[in-house]
Batch of 4 targets.
Target 1
Amino acid sequence: MGNSKSGSLSKDILEELQLNTKFTAEELRAWYQSFQKECPSGRITQQQFQSIYAKFFPDSDPKAYAEHVFRSFDANGDGTLDFKEYVIALHMTTAGKPSQKLEWAFSLYDVDGNGAISKNEVLDIVMAIFKMISPEDVKHLPDDENTPEKRAEKIWSFFGKKDDDKLTEEEFIERTLANTEILRLIQFEPQKVKERLNEKEKNA
């Protein structure tokens, strides 16, 4: 972004982010000032993103998940995000609309970026999500989804795929929209994490 190194957030970017996220102008301006302090170059690296993401989830280990989130938003693969990309990443992973989240979720699960999802890629993401769930919360999960392997198997079976099959974006979105159980299983944040985020917002 041409405005990345300027001292204040441009009106165009501010209006675009207000339109496409739930964040207020005051929040966005405050975040921009903080972003500029932490990332004087106007761009954030994967390591910096992981550090900031960890502040949202102090009681868990979001490093692997944050790495996948970063990769899914680093469209040009240069290893950095500008402020706009950074805010949209946070919005999509915490408060985006269901349709937006599914488009993004596909790119999250498509780990190698080849346009299709494999069973192993599902397991990769589910393993990252499990690192964000406390052992106590895991105890309350159903027996057929209380490990990453079991949950990945359950997700894959809902899609009706064989172990070596691939899942296209169209199939992923269509079947997930038609089956709330799949949506629950692939959810991008554990429910307890969502509740913690909501508490943070109420207390802000």
Target 2
Amino acid sequence: MRVPLCLLLFVAQAADMLPMNRRRKQVGTGLGGNCTGCVICSEENGCSTCQQKLFLFIRREGIRQYGKCVHDCPPGYFGVRGQEVNRCKKCGATCESCFSQDFCIQCKRRFYLYKGKCLPTCPPGTAAQQSTQECQEECELGAWGSWSPCTHNGKTCGFAWGLETRVREASRARQEEGATCQVLFESRKCPVQRPCPGERNPSQKKGRRDRRPRKDRKLDRKLDMRPGRPQA
């Protein structure tokens, strides 16, 4: 019995298609199988060219690499737009995230951010902030301000001891740079000697006091006690 030639050709074609279908299934579920947003896509290595406005992110594993088209580059990478391809490039070795190759936004552990750079130690004139991993400018304080009015229990009148306060703030240059500086306060005792409305001077209430020096008052008392002095 002779087998028809057309049947033999069909069986041979089906045998050739079987390995290719298996290969496509394996690649479709692998790292290089995602061709979303691609213009040129390879089953082995994924995307090599992306649609406009998308970035090509290449992930390397050993000697193999896989391309993927993304809207935003992942942490540790920054986007660079080109005439043909927009690419995701890796940040510097000390950067956790960055705006460009030369400008870091966040540093890796044990490094401190200072003017876009990640440094192992903060430069002179700055202090390391452990909570933010940043080098903060040390404050340059300005001159002391004027003393405030003397107050006692919140009032600027009366006859008692009060307090007056003055403030020392950071210089205007440091304020414009955004440095967080501690404001210094200084207080001292002061006499409040201004009568409040409707209040009389305490010295007027108790009568006029002898304001002569103490030694003169003692001398008068001794003269009054001398014998033979005529009594009034």
Target 3
Amino acid sequence: TDQYSLYFAGSTTLFNALLMKCLEREVMALCRYTARRNTPPRFVALVPQEEEVDEQKVQIAPPGFHIIFLPYADDKRNVDFTEKVPASREQVDKMKEIIQKLRFKYRTDSFENPVLQQHFRNLEALALAMMEPEQAEDLTSENYWWV
């Protein structure tokens, strides 16, 4: 049971009922989402996902909702496509090569939890009476990958 189920009696039952009805009717829910206090709300779509299991009844994908952030009116724009420019065989082969280089075997122990690492650095700074802790580097951040 998660921490919020303790505050709202019946929330798990409500969640499951909403998920089942959305899947049954093949609809999504339009919602207003506020991530935390003092942040503006955003409109989101809750897209239902059915549980997926393989032949051995092992769960592949859990049941639940995907939150899709919807664009604002000024985020939309019309782009005029004057002509279709097909990629050459050489360009396609080059992109396949690039994509192949981007693939790697994912291992959870390859990436440190940045929040936990920052917590450890804060404890270290407190124990050593440092003025301020070192900042943990988040190797999972999209900002890191663009550098």
Target 4
Amino acid sequence: MIILTEMGAKGRKKSITKKLKKGASEFSASKDKAADFLPLEGGPARKLPDTEVQESKARVLYIGRIPHGFYENEMEGFFKQFGTIKRLRLARNKKTGKSKHFGFIEFESPEVAKVVADTMHNYLLFEHLLQVRLIPPEHVHPKLWKGVNRWYKPLDWVKIERKHHDKERTLEDHNKLVEGILKREKKRRKRIEAAGIDYECPEMVGAIQSAPKKIRFTD
């Protein structure tokens, strides 16, 4: 029984040594082919499949953290030193027209766009670190350049509010205005009472209109 176990152990040892020799020979043969890695499960070395390096065709750049005062004219004057700019857009608030501190630039050459992305990313400008990234062509939204040729014209809000305030109102418009004021005043008084404040609110002047007097003419 002891002889059989010894023979079995010797057979296993021989098979392991054979496998090791085979693996070493395969590894040395594959070494000439410049193998990239050895599989964890064992076996011969393998090589990664050849992939063709595709040139980047992205020409559109996203620029974030744009500082205040660095608007369309300033951006165009600064970035045109790298190459020809095809389109430029700074995101603005539709109501106020203020900058949203991010924008997009499209260059004619993708090589120039890549240079700008590598050079200007994390560039310190007016205490702001610019965030510049390339946008792949398939990710460029069709409405990205909507209104790009419309330059912002500042609105004169004082003039607009003055015109709204001084416009002529009919009696119906006036009554509607007074009704809104009285409704807000009523809510304000309820909030004061709910807070436990003993305060007598003054009456609104001109809220109650006196009825027109009837004038009789005697012969």
